[in-house]
Every structure is written in structure tokens, then in C-alpha cells.
């Protein structure tokens, strides 16, 4: 039986999340294209330099927050239901969190779009990092607050499913997909509490005029406490697919279930006590705290390097099942002609490049070179813009048939799409990295009037880099349209009935019986994670609030 027949209510929620995610992808993607074309200098008149910041905010909020997080909800709602074989406790509750998130996202989007309309006098050009001293209309902050509360309730929904399952399965190991969902949500609760407090205690009252001033350094610190772990809220759904679906698509089985659990436990522990690596250049936070954050960040590479090992070992196993031989011969036997497989593996390759640029960012001294330059957008277009986004797209080629009951249409287009994305992001990110090293700033509405005379790139020139970014953006947007086409065609015109995607996932080569029981002790990992957070942040935050939470620190001398 297909998922949509067994769990029609859960499939409906999953589809609704996909619909919102897709809408955000299209609008946010269009904003990205406009910006990149503006930056080429040739199409600078598309928007004014003031509108640039509104468009940039819309691009960031719609893609990094709305597209990714609704995509996560779609995936995780399906994942817990499928792996526990357990319906949600209350159907209305799923629609409650979905509704809160949707209303919140719409409110924030309206506030942002206000910046493009001369008839209204509200705006929210505060960028997707939205900390003070930039100030947005209250609608923006209220929308974000609702959105975050919605995600918390989504987590409650999945925990309830797990508790209900546990009642009938007291001795069983947590199924791997559910384990990944619960671990992600524990990390998210620990991380997002500070952004909720930042919004509700400081930014919203400030923009409503209830309080006159806020301490920019404190609100930045509260943002970045959340701002690093949020990147794993985008990444872990991709890991969820790489660990559970990709091995099957490769023709094999997951190499090791215990290693996958270790990886997710490490993310619970280490995702949060690292936020200061975004503030290496902030005055007012002592070097010692920054040094601790740098060290923790280097430890945090471990789960991703373990993932590289486990996922590639699983793919190799699949390639060998399909007849591959020799050291590298298995590579050619993999199903490169399947869009879902190709999309995930191409994402993984780009993730490796993005991860290495993350190591560069994380070095305290090297960070001074790249911070606030185009290097950083180069890094994250490989990470959230490809590892997360392209994996989610590829995953939906496999998942949509299960939640709609329709056959995937236009498989050829679904195959070209990820390769086109791969080529597009190669142009975009490579040019961004080079431009960043040449000193070209990020988040700056510079078009042709800025001559960059003081920059001397080792190779090429800045004009050529900006053109390459424009070319990359055009290819990425074209790929996005192809994706949209396949999804809409499948959803609305796909043939009913036989669903070719078989939703079962084969057991791991080394199964959960080899995983020490302690790995499933989520209470223990939560407690340890909180201890690490207190150690990394306690004294630093005390220093920021000791003179009163609304008083800015002493100016740097
Ligand atoms: Fe980052 C800035 C450090 C990961 C996103 N990051 C950002 C920003 C974003 C972002 C959006 O330390 C900008 C924020 C802003 O607007 O200011 N980042 C890191 C480090 C990691 C890292 C150390 N980042 C991510 C992920 C993101 C993301 C994941 C989104 C999803 N990042 C930084 C730092 C900054 C920063 C500084 C501040 C910069 C500044 O100055 O502003 C690590 O987690 C990366 C670990 C990854 C690896 C790669 C392992 C390789 C694998 C390959 C598997 C291969 C497969 C395919 C599956 C070590 C797992 C193979 C197939 C075959 C067949 C061969
Ligand atoms: Cu970070």
C-alpha cells in the first residue's frame, strides 16, 4: 500500500508544506536572480540601490527560512509517520502548527514587500539576519515569532507520535528516521529559544515604541547563538535523506546505523556553543570566548566528516550491488540517470567544497580576510543553497509520488535539472569566492559606479566575476523553473494509481543492534548540550548584561 492510502491525513499536511515551500522557492529565487543581474552592472536599473536591500531581505527570508523550514516539515512529517508506522495524535494539531507558520511567513513577507511599494509606509529591509540596529516594522517581528512558535508545535506533534509508538514498543530501538527527527528538534529547541527571546523581549517592543533603545551587541549575540545552529536545521533534513533514502537509490543499504546516530548526537551537543564564530570581528566580546567557539567549531567538523565516510561507503556498497568492480569502477555503475540520485550526490559534492570553505571561515585569523566579503555568500550558496536546497528538490522527486499518489512526470527534465543547478552554482560560488578574496563586499548595492580600483585579483577582474555570478544565477533560476515544472506536472496531471516509488527503506548493513543503548538516551544528550551552552555562553552573556540589558556596552577605544 502506498503512503497516501495508509495515511491520507498526514500526506495532506506533507503536501501543504510542500506547496508553501515551493511558493517561497519561486519568489525567493526570482529575487536572487534580480539581485545578481543588478550586480552585473548591465541590468542595474532593474532595482534601485535602496530596493536592493529589500530584495536581498526577501531572498534570504523566503529561501533560508520559509522554503527550507517548510521543506523540513514536509519531510519530517512523512518520516516520523512512515518509520513509526503511527498516525499523528490529533489531526487538528498538525493544521494548527502549519497555520501558525503560514500566517507568520505571510506577515513577514508582506512587511518585506512593503519596501517595494510606494503606496505603503512600512518595510523590513533588515536582511535575513534581522538584528539591531536595523529596525523593521512590527509586522515582520510578529510574523517571525508566530513562525518560530509554529515550528515548536510541529516538534511537539512528532514527539507525540513517538510517545504513542513507545507505549506499544517499550523495548524497541528508536527507528532511525524518527531518531534523526527528534535529535534535530532537540537541537532546534535549544537554539531557537534565544531568537524568540530576542524578538519578543527586545526587537518587537522596540519597533512598537515600547522601549527606546536596545543593546546591538546583546541582540547580535542572541541572534548568532541561534544563527549557527539554524544552518543545521537546514542541513539535517538533507542528512536525513542522505542517510535513509540515498543508500536505497544507490542500489544498496546504509553502511552503519550506529554511526548515523552518533552523528546526530554530536549535532545536538555541538551545534550551539559555536555562535561566536560569526562575531570574530565584533568588539566587546573577549578573545577568549571567541577562541573557545573556534575550538568547538573545529570539533563540529567531525559529524560531517563521519557523514562523508558513511554516505560514500553506502553509495559504494550500492554501486557494487549494481555490478561495479575495482577501486573506482563502482562509480560508473551508479544510477546517474535518475534525477533523485544524481541531485543528492551532486549536492554532496558541493557540500564538500562548501564545508572546506567553512573551515576557512572558522579560523579566527583567516576569518578577518573573508568576513563581510562575497566569500561568505559563496560558502552558503554551496551549503544551504545547494547541499540543502538541491537535496530537498531531489528528495521530492522520490517523495512526491508517495504523498500524491501520482507517477513522477517528465523524468528527463527531472534529470537535467540537478546537473544544471550544479553548473549554475559552480559559476556563482566560484566567482563569489574569488571576488571575496579580492575584497568585494557582500550586502552592498554596488553596481558599476564602484570601480574596485583598489582591488587586485590574482586572476581575472571584478567585472568578469560579476558577469559569472549573473550567469550562474540565470542557470540556477532556469533549473528552478524546470523543478517547478516537474512538480506541478506530477501533482496536477500525473497518472493516478500505480506508484512506482517504493517507500520502503532496506535495513542498514550494520543495524541498530550494534548501536550502544546510550545513544538513544535523548534526555542525557539534551542535558549535556545545555551544560556546554552554559559553559560557552554564560560568562560572555553575563558580561553583556551586567550593566543592564538595554545599555550598549562601552564604545571600543
Ligand atoms: Fe557556515 C557563515 C563555518 C556549515 C551556512 N554559514 C555561514 C552563513 C551561512 C552558513 C548562511 O566559522 C552566513 C551567515 C551570514 O549571513 O552572515 N559553516 C561553517 C563550518 C561549517 C559550516 C565550520 N554553514 C554550514 C552549513 C550551512 C552554512 C551546513 C547551511 C546549510 N559559516 C562558518 C563560519 C561563518 C559561516 C565561521 C561566518 C563567516 C563570516 O565571517 O561571516 C561546517 O559544518 C562544515 C562541515 C562540512 C564538511 C564537509 C564534509 C563533506 C561531506 C561530503 C559528502 C559527500 C557526498 C557525495 C555525500 C567538513 C559530508 C559523495 C559522492 C560520491 C559518489 C563521491
Ligand atoms: Cu556558523
In brief:
By secondary structure, this protein is mainly alpha-helical.
Describe the protein in words.
With 557 residues, the chain is mostly helical. Helices cover 69% and strands 0% of the residues. The chain is built from 18 helices and no strands. It has helices at 3-6, 8-40, 49-84, 91-113, 138-168, 176-207, 216-227, 229-244, 246-249, 257-270, 287-299, 301-321, 339-362, 364-370, 375-404, 411-437, 462-493, 522-545. It is globular, with a radius of gyration of 23 Å. The mean pLDDT is 93. Bound molecules: heme-as and copper (II) ion.
Number of helices: 18
What's the order of the H and E elements?
HHHHHHHHHHHHHHHHHH
Unreliable stretches (pLDDT < 50, length at least 5) are: none
The share of residues in extended strands comes to under 5%
Offer a few descriptive terms:
single chain; about 550 residues; mainly alpha; about 0% strand; binds heme-as; binds copper (II) ion
Give me the secondary-structure topology.
Layout: H1 3-6, H2 8-40, H3 49-84, H4 91-113, H5 138-168, H6 176-207, H7 216-227, H8 229-244, H9 246-249, H10 257-270, H11 287-299, H12 301-321, H13 339-362, H14 364-370, H15 375-404, H16 411-437, H17 462-493, H18 522-545
Helix pairs in contact: 2-3, 2-4, 2-15, 2-17, 3-4, 3-5, 3-6, 3-15, 4-5, 5-6, 6-7, 6-8, 6-10, 6-18, 8-15, 10-12, 10-18, 13-15, 13-16, 15-16, 15-17, 16-17
Residues 129, 231, 234-235, 242, 277-278, 297, 300-301, 304-305, 307-308, 311-312, 315, 345, 348-349, 351-352, 355, 358-359, 361-362, 367, 371, 376, 379-380, 383-384, 387-388 line the site of heme-as.
Amino acid at each position: 500500500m502506498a503512503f497516501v492510502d495508509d495515511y491520507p491525513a498526514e500526506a495532506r499536511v506533507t503536501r501543504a508544506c510542500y506547496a508553501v515551500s515551493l511558493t517561497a522557492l519561486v519568489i525567493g529565487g526570482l529575487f536572487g536572480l534580480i539581485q545578481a543581474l543588478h550586480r552585473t552592472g548591465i541590468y542595474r536599473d532593474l532595482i534601485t540601490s535602496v530596493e536592493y536591500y529589500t530584495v536581498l531581505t526577501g531572498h534570504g527570508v523566503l529561501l533560508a527560512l520559509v522554503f527550507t523550514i517548510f521543506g523540513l516539515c514536509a519531510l519530517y512529517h512523512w518520516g516520523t509517520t512512515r518509520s513509526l508506522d503511527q498516525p499523528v495524535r490529533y489531526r487538528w494539531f498538525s493544521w494548527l502548527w502549519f497555520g501558525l507558520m503560514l500566517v507568520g511567513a505571510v506577515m513577514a513577507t508582506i512587511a518585506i514587500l512593503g519596501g517595494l511599494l510606494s503606496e505603503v509606509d512600512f518595510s523590513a529591509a533588515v536582511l535575513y539576519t534581522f538584528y539591531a540596529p536595523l529596525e523593521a516594522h512590527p509586522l515582520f517581528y510578529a510574523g517571525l515569532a508566530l513562525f518560530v512558535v509554529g515550528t515548536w508545535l510541529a516538534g511537539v506533534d512528532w514527539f507525540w507520535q513517538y510517545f504513542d509508538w513507545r507505549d506499544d514498543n517499550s523495548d524497541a530501538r528508536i527507528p532511525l528516521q524518527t531518531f534523526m527527527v527528534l535529535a534535530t528538534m532537540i537541537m532546534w529547541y535549544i537554539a531557537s529559544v534565544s531568537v524568540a527571546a530576542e524578538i519578543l523581549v527586545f526587537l518587537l517592543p522596540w519597533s512598537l515604541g515600547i522601549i527606546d533603545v536596545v543593546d546591538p551587541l546583546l541582540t547580535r549575540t542572541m541572534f548568532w547563538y541561534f544563527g549557527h545552529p539554524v544552518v543545521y536545521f537546514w542541513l539535517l533534513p538533507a542528512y536525513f535523506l542522505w542517510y535513509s533514502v540515498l543508500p536505497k537509490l544507490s542500489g544498496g543499504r546504509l553502511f552503519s546505523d550506529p554511526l548515523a546516530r552518533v552523528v546526530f548526537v554530536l549535532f545536538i551537543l555541538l551545534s550551539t556553543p559555536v555562535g561566536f564564530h560569526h562575531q570574530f570581528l565584533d568588539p566587546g566580546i573577549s578573545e577568549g570566548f571567541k577562541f573557545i567557539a573556534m575550538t568547538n567549531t573545529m570539533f563540529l567538523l567531525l559529524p560531517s566528516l563521519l557523514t562523508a565516510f558513511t554516505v560514500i561507503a553506502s553509495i559504494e556498497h550500492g554501486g557494487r550491488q549494481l555490478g561495479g568492480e575495482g577501486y573506482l569502477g563502482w562509480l560508473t555503475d551508479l544510477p546517474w540517470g535518475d534525477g533523485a540520485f544524481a541531485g543528492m550526490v551532486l549536492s554532496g559534492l558541493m557540500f564538500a567544497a562548501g564545508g572546506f570553505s567553512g573551515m576557512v571561515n572558522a579560523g579566527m585569523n583567516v576569518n578577518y580576510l573573508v568576513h563581510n566579503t562575497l566569500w561568505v555568500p559563496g560558502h552558503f550558496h554551496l551549503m544551504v543553497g545547494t547541499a540543502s536546497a538541491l537535496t530537498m528538490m531531489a528528495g521530492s522527486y522520490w517523495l512526491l509520488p508517495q504523498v500524491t499518489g501520482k507517477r513522477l512526470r517528465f523524468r528527463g527534465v527531472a534529470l537535467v535539472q540537478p546537473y544544471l543547478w550544479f553548473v549554475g552554482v559552480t559559476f556563482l560560488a566560484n566567482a563569489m569566492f574569488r571576488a571575496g578574496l579580492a575584497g568585494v563586499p557582500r550586502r552592498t548595492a554596488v553596481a558599476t559606479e564602484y570601480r574596485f580600483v583598489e582591488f587586485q585579483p590574482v586572476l581575472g577582474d571584478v567585472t568578469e566575476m560579476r558577469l559569472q555570478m549573473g550567469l550562474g544565477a540565470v542557470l540556477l533560476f532556469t533549473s528552478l523553473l524546470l523543478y517547478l515544472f516537474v512538480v506541478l506536472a506530477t501533482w496536477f496531471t500525473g497518472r493516478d494509481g500505480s506508484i512506482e516509488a517504493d517507500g520502503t527503506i532496506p535495513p542498514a548493513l550494520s543495524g541498530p543492534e550494534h548501536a550502544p543503548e546510550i545513544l538513544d538516551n535523548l534526555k542525557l544528550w539534551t542535558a549535556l548540550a545545555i551544560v556546554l551552552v552554559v559553559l560557552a555562553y554564560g560568562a560572555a552573556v553575563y558580561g553583556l548584561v551586567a550593566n543592564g540589558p538595554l545599555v550598549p556596552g562601552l564604545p571600543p577605544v
